[in-house]
Each structure stands twice: as C-alpha cells, then as structure tokens.
Design a protein that fits this description.
The chain is an all-alpha fold. It has 14 helices and no strands. The protein has 3 domains: 9-94; 104-141; 143-255, no CATH class. The protein is 73% helix and 0% strand. Helix 1 packs across helix 5 (79-90) and helix 12 (198-212) packs antiparallel against helix 13.
C-alpha cells in the first residue's frame, strides 16, 4: 500500500480482517480496537502506535504494522478518513458476515462497501438503505440477495431482540427455508416494537409458518415455547449438537475460501 494514496474502503476492511485473523486471541483484536477509539487529544498517535505494537508482534503477519502506521498517518492528517476508518472498524462483525454471504467475491464486496457509504458521514439512513437496495437489485443474483437479507434479518434480531447466534442457528435449522426464516424474524421484530402479547406473537408466526411450511410448525412451536420459558438449553440437545456441527463445517468452508484481497428476541 502506498503511503501517499488514501486507502479505500476495501483497503481498510481488508486490513482489519487480516488483523483479526492474524491475532492468536480474539480478545487481542477487541483490546486493540478499543485503543483506536480514544481521542487523539487524550492519546496522541505516537502513543497509540506504541501501545498497540505488542499486539502486532503477536500477529502471524507482523508486516500488518506497517499498513497500520500508514493508515494512522492518514487518520491523523485527515479527519474525514479517520471517521471512515473507525466506522469500518466498528462494522467489522457484520461486514465479515456480508463478505461470506457475497461468496468472498471482491468485486461485490467493494460494491457493497460503496453502497453502505461508510465514507459519507452525512448520508441519511434512507439514503443508505436506497443505495443498498440498488446494489442488491443491480449487482446480486437472487440467491446472493437472499443470503445478504438473511444477515440483515439476523443482525436486527440480535440487536433488537437480544438473540444469540446459537439460538438463531437453531431457528434457521428448524425452518430450513431462508425466505420464510427472514419473514419470521422480521415479524418478531415488528411484534416486539408493537409490544404484543406472547399469544398474539405465536398466532402470527403460526399463520406464517402453516401457510408456507406446515410440517415444521410443531417443532418450531416447541422451540419458541422453550425460548419463551427460558428452557432453550433443555430443548432437543440433538438438534443443538447438529447445529454446532453444521456451523463448524461452515466455518471450515469459509476458512478454505480463496483469499483474493491484498494486504496493503424472540
């Protein structure tokens, strides 16, 4: 990466992704990132570099520190770039899921990052959503769109309803239909905002499931009931074990994808 050229959104994402996967401990990444959000008037860039150097020395790719130095120099000289740098950093969890949903396609990920407008702090929520919709419609096939929308739905359910990734994985495995699963999550979030009774929520979900996939309703109702009563970990341990196994296999597949980037509540 040239020290004169301003790093792109993809460059920033690629750096943070490479850094996270190069560190031996996930907590190292969290601790390092926390340092970046300390204002420069509290911690000058020179002090930030000194404080994070031990983390980079533990990286499997120590040369990432050079890339980090370049990015920090740009951040020190350009407030707009610093804002973009931190916004990409803050969004890494969902961005990595989106990359996977996009099949690891660099061109699509660059398009998604551009549509997300992380380099435009003044972009309104409506502008961003319209931009993302155009990207999905114009650049992604139907299956890719569905995978991305599934990520959106799960992030919304996690943020608004407090659902863990493990619980969402069980729900997805039971339904085994991404379009229906997304509809259920969206309905649950809407019901949560409307503060409906549990009985009303169950009635709406039952109608949706029985219209499209009635065979799974009995099992899904048992899952919902166990979740509602707080006995989710007593629910069908075989199902839980299978989901964990499936997730492990998916993670192996994800790790084996070719790397195209350059380092530079219910």
């Amino acid at each position: 990466m040239s020290s004169e050229t301003t790093p792109s959104l993809y460059d920033i994402y690629s750096f943070f992704h490479s850094l996270r996967t190069s560190l031996p401990d996930y907590n190292d990444f969290s601790d390092l990132v926390g340092t970046l959000f300390i204002p420069h008037d509290v911690m000058p860039v020179s002090e930030t570099l000194a404080n994070v150097l031990p983390y980079f020395r533990r990286c499997s790719n120590p040369s990432l520190f050079t890339t980090f130095q370049i990015m920090m120099r740009h951040a020190e000289q350009n407030a707009s770039f610093e804002s973009t740098f931190l916004r990409v950093c803050d969004a890494m969890d969902i961005l990595e899921k989106i990359e996977y949903a996009l099949g690891g396609n660099r061109r699509l990920l660059e398009g998604y990052l551009h549509a997300l407008q992380l380099d435009n702090a003044s972009a309104s929520h409506e502008q961003v959503m319209n931009s993302l919709q155009r990207f999905l419609t114009e650049k992604c096939d139907a299956n890719t769109q569905l995978r991305v929308r599934k990520v959106f739905a799960e992030e919304g359910a996690a943020d608004e309803l407090g659902l863990s990734g493990g619980i969402l994985a069980i729900a997805s495995a039971i339904i085994d239909d991404d379009a229906l699963y997304i509809q259920i999550l969206q309905t649950l979030q809407l019901n949560h905002r409307q503060n409906l009774s549990w009985e009303a929520v169950i009635s709406r979900i039952q109608k949706i499931v029985q219209e499209k996939k009635p065979a799974v309703w009995s099992e899904f109702y048992a899952f919902l009931d166990s979740l509602h009563t707080g006995n989710i970990y007593d629910y069908n341990s075989d199902k839980l074990a299978k989901v964990r196994l499936d997730n492990d296999e998916d993670n192996v597949d994800k790790e084996q994808q070719p790397q195209q980037r350059e380092i530079g509540a219910f």
